[in-house]
Specification:
The complex is a heterodimer of chains A (about 300) and B (about 525). Chain A is an all-alpha fold. Chain A has a single domain, classed as MetI-like (MetI-like fold, Orthogonal Bundle), CATH 1.10.3720.10. Chain A contains 14 helices and two strands. Chain B has three domains: about 30 residues, no CATH class; about 240 residues, 3-Layer(aba) Sandwich (D-Maltodextrin-Binding Protein, domain 2), CATH 3.40.190; about 220 residues, Dipeptide-binding Protein, domain 3. Chain B contains 16 helices and 18 strands. A six-stranded mixed sheet of chain B has the order 12-16-11-15-13-14, sandwiched between helices. Chain B has a four-stranded mixed sheet with strand order 1-10-9-8, sandwiched between helices. In chain B, helix 15 packs antiparallel against helix 16. The chains are: A mainly alpha (about 300), B alpha+beta (about 525). Chains A and B meet through helix 13 of A and helix 7, helix 9, helix 12 and strand 14 of B.
């Protein structure tokens, strides 16, 4: 009797590539990823991609409709809308990603700490989270941005990032806490405690890696929320200031005066915001479906 | 009375054809037979900003005047049909001594304050003492204006005599300033700060209520000293801080007008949607935006840097473009373009910052920056967070300076911090404003005096030469010599490039055609007592 051993090399070749597997399982997620990649490319290489200087005023081309020269038309200052959209993706991504990263990371740390330590620490953190959760994201961001003076570093509005990051914290903290609670009671955590490991080591080496999936999903989903919040705050005059190219800002100011005679002034920035939010939301959902084993059953 | 845009344009053309261009307005009144005045009704109008307090003596924002003017009277006021001629308000008559050293005013009899007390010459003295020498804790932004008054005498309860220390050829116009409202002496004696929070005037309307964030309202003063006035039963000034809200309110008829001014795009929207129900009146405006350098800060202590930055601005091109999208329009010097003392274009283009050859001008600007060692200059442009016309002005300036390699960060903030930053001298470069109520040079030039004399000079410059020219021009009674002094003053200001007008504003006021008797003028600070306004409903 012979025992047939599995062909090791063949088995290895069957190990699917993660990216291909993601595209196969989540085709809509792949499309959204392509949109995000295109946005990132446009943002990073704006000076190479944009046909015009986004700040250059040209009164001779004031409110010009879309044409071969200006694909998305021009605004009330004769500035090329297409170029401003391309540069605007940089603003959206920098503020969207940074605030989402900061908010999600702090939220994750608070969520894990709350779950791990329990007791009074859990109570205090959760009541604080309850208070913050009582405010809608945009309202809380409005309060923060109005309360603090504008502070920029390298042209990036730190106040705006903080304003958007703070409302994200409680939302991520609550989700990560629930994930961490199930990890906390796992035998290997008890083993780590019995071995005398420090709290920091247990949290960062044993709990954090097991809540990465919800963290990543929340991070991605909140980039969309942050982009939307940035656009809303800029629209309300509390975000980035003119003449910075920013999508929300492009919808306010002169756009409100001229949208009837030059609808392209609001149409294209509106499409850009919707597309970005749609892409990040879809990507977040797809990532959750892909990473969460429960959805594979 | 209905004035369509076509009528206004035809009237303007006619006025110029008749050689009446010096009349300063580019709007006209319809010559159709005026309908009979109808009494009664309440006027609702929009105020685009809320008054920070009730005291016009301490204010230079229209928000205070549009709020408070209907409750008060002044000694004289401008006759807007014959602007800049003055007419009596509380003063029934007045005489000016030939040497301009004595002004005597005879007050109307039986003028009552809203609390029932009778106005006397003592009230005028108390008011002008507060204006020229405010007590501790009271702000008077017109202190310098009345510094030439030596004494005020009251030979009887209805006569006031102002004795001057020195001749001030513009004194009569200053007595007509809308900011110098008359307060009751007893109110000021009780507490000199009373007018900030309490209203007790002699104006055509009495104060009813101020609901913060909502409105201010007044009702007809039954004891108003001008018999037959006011026509209205009352008014309500509704705070519409957002332009869109204001436009919607005008369009929907919730308010019958906004008396400060709107942008060309907003005008077009109202005309398009309301047709013949809206009346549009236009005029040049005694208001300009200034590019202001803080000379206490490096590198703006270097005249080459300041002048280079002014020379990079294409005002003529900017005027063409910005006038289509904002209330900014005319290129001018320190005096309103088109007014009698203004510098003509042929002379203006010879001054730094006004060349029509912008290419050559920018080349010179680059050279100056190189000489000064600031080829890669970076700075913050401080601006007010008001969409019209501050934001377009900021966008324009950033673009202009980028064209000579200068990198500018545009910072906008609300009026409070914006003014506080500039007043504290914490700005590098700012977009400041000069809000005038008349064209007289004694007012228009004051902003450029040394900061020790004029706190509103936010460039913080100190220039004795300018101060001397200004003082000499105040004493000069010959208009031609005065004009020459104004030119010398202007040349010095622009050569030193402390601050310079960017563009002058253009006033566009929308009112419903049923609103009658409201007088248009080149200043939004004038004509807001509303006593002759009526509703043709």
């Amino acid at each position: 009797m012979t025992i047939a051993l599995p062909d090791a090399p063949v088995a290895k070749s069957r190990q699917p590539n993660v990216l291909i597997e993601f595209c196969r399982q989540q085709p809509l997620g792949a499309v959204s990823f392509l949109i995000i990649a295109a946005m990132m490319f446009a943002g990073i290489f704006s000076p190479l991609v944009a046909p015009y200087d986004p700040l250059a005023i040209d009164f001779a081309s004031l409110l010009a409709p879309p044409s071969a020269d200006h694909w998305c038309g021009t605004d009330a200052f004769g500035r090329d809308i297409c170029s401003r959209l391309i540069y605007g993706s940089r603003t959206a991504l920098v503020i969207g990603f940074t605030s989402s990263f900061v908010g999600s990371s702090i939220g994750a740390i608070l969520g894990i700490a709350s779950a791990y330590f329990g007791g009074k620490i859990d109570d205090w953190i959760q009541r604080f989270v309850d208070i913050l959760l009582a405010f809608p994201l945009i309202v809380l961001a409005l309060v923060v941005v109005a309360a603090f003076r504008k502070f920029t570093v390298g042209g990036v509005d730190v106040n705006l990032i903080v304003a958007i990051a703070i409302p994200i914290i409680p939302r991520v903290a609550r989700v990560v806490r629930s994930a961490a609670l199930s990890v906390r009671v796992a035998p290997y955590i008890d083993a780590a405690r019995a071995a005398g490991y420090s709290h920091t080591r247990i949290i960062f080496r044993h709990i954090a890696p097991n809540v990465v999936a919800p963290y990543l999903i929340m991070l991605t989903a909140f980039i969309a929320q942050a982009i939307l919040a940035e656009a809303s705050l800029s629209f309300l005059g509390l975000g980035v200031t003119e003449p910075t190219a920013a999508w929300g800002l492009m919808l306010s100011g002169n756009a409100a005066d001229f949208y009837r005679q030059a609808p392209w002034m609001i149409l294209f920035p509106g499409i850009a915001i919707s597309l970005a939010v749609f892409a990040f939301n879809l990507f977040g959902d797809s990532l959750r479906d892909f990473l969460d084993p429960r959805f594979k059953v | 009375m209905k004035i369509s845009r076509r009528t206004a344009l035809q009237g303007t053309a006619g006025a110029f054809a008749l050689g009446l261009g010096g009349f300063n307005f580019d709007f006209t009144r319809a010559s159709a037979q005026a309908p009979a005045v109808k009494r009664g009704g309440t006027l609702n109008f929009a105020i685009s900003a809320e008054a920070p307090h009730y005291d016009p003596h301490a204010s230079d924002t229209y928000a205070t005047l549009h709020f408070a003017a209907p409750f008060y009277s002044t000694l004289l006021r401008f006759d807007l049909a014959k602007f800049p001629a003055v007419e009596g308000d509380l003063a029934q008559s007045w005489t000016v001594a030939p040497d301009l050293m004595t002004y005597t005013f005879k007050l109307h009899p039986n003028v009552k304050f809203h609390d029932g007390t009778t106005l006397t010459s003592a009230d005028v003295v108390a008011t002008y003492d507060r204006l020229r020498n405010p007590p501790q804790g009271v702000v008077s932004t017109r202190r310098a204006t009345f510094a030439d008054i030596a004494s005020i005498e009251t030979p009887d309860p209805s006569t006031v005599i102002f004795k001057m220390k020195a001749v001030n050829a513009s004194m009569l116009e200053h007595f007509a300033s809308p900011w110098n409202v008359i307060y009751a002496a007893k109110d000021l004696a009780d507490n000199p700060a009373n007018p900030r929070t309490k209203i007790n005037g002699t104006g055509p309307f009495t104060f009813v209520e101020h609901i913060k964030g909502s409105h201010v309202s007044g009702k007809k003063n039954e004891n108003y000293f001008k018999k037959g006035y006011p026509y209205l039963d009352g008014f309500k000034g509704i705070f519409t801080l957002q332009a869109a809200a204001m436009l919607n309110a005008v369009q929907g008829g919730q308010v019958l007008g906004e008396f400060r001014g709107i942008s060309p795009a907003e005008r077009d929207r109202l005309v398009q949607t309301m047709g013949d129900k809206i009346r549009i009146q236009e005029s040049s405006w005694t208001l300009n935006l200034l590019v202001c350098f803080n000379v206490d800060k490096k590198p703006f202590d270097d005249v080459r840097v300041r002048r280079a930055l002014l020379m990079a601005i294409d005002r003529w091109g900017g005027s063409t473009g910005l006038s289509k999208i904002s209330t900014l329009r005319s290129v001018g010097g320190v005096i309103r373009p088109g007014s009698p003392m203004a510098t003509p274009e042929a002379e203006l283009v010879k001054l730094p910052g006004f060349s029509k050859d912008i290419k050559k001008s920018r080349e010179e600007a680059r050279k100056l920056l190189k000489e000064a060692g600031h080829e890669n200059l970076k700075f913050v442009l401080w601006n007010r967070n008001l969409a019209m016309p501050y934001t377009p002005a900021g966008i324009f300036l950033v673009d202009q300076w980028r064209q000579i390699g200068v990198e500018v960060e545009h910072k906008q903030s609300d009026t409070g911090p914006y003014l506080a930053t500039m007043n504290a001298g914490n700005h590098d470069v700012a977009i400041d404003f000069s809000n005038l109520f008349m064209d007289d040079s004694s007012l228009g030039l004051a902003k450029y005096l040394s900061v020790t004399r004029a706190p509103e000079n936010r460039s913080r410059s100190k220039d004795e030469q300018l101060d001397k020219i200004y003082d000499d021009h105040l004493r000069e009674r010959d208009p031609e010599k005065r004009k020459a002094m104004i030119r010398a003053f202007e040349k010095r200001v622009f050569e030193q490039a402390y601050q310079q007008p960017l563009l002058w504003w253009h006033r566009i006021v929308p009112t419903h055609t049923q609103l009658m008797g409201w007088p248009m003028s080149p200043s939004h600070n004038l004509g807001q007592q509303l006593e002759a306004v009526w509703l043709n409903a």
